[in-house]
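Section 3.1: Structural characterization of target chains.
Under the original work plan, the team committed to producing a structural model for every single-chain target entering the pipeline before any wet-lab resources were allocated. The record below documents one such target. The sequence was received from the expression subgroup and is listed exactly as submitted; it comprises 139 residues.
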Amino acid sequence: MSANSIPSPPIHRVALLQLATLVPSCLLVWLALDETAAVSALCGGAVAVVPQAWFAAKLFRARGARSASEIARSALSGEIGKFLLSAVGFAAVFVVLRPLEAAAVFAGYVAMLIVQTIGSWWFLMRRQQKQTETPKQEL
């Protein structure tokens, strides 16, 4: 199997799933609680989604065994970038956002990490299921 025939993982779908979960959830928080909690949760969720999407895009640019060293470099720089984006994101939220509900910021962040984990697992299981259902060609 050549590197070009290896399908890329559905990383963009996980980020889209996170956003499709985050925005309506924050609207519900706004209706149930208040605007401050909703904006705080939205910002906390964004602090999780943006660095993870950037890391995944950086990591999965290259594929195949011949690209192993490039993948390793991308993983390292992607993880460093993800850490820095997360730190800067949290710092910006806590410095700039006023009024702020810290519990809502962290709730939004943790909720997006849960959606990321479950969404990644679900997309991978679905992909594996599709691969086992397609008939294999005999050589």
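Helices lie at 11-32, 35-59, 68-96, 102-133.
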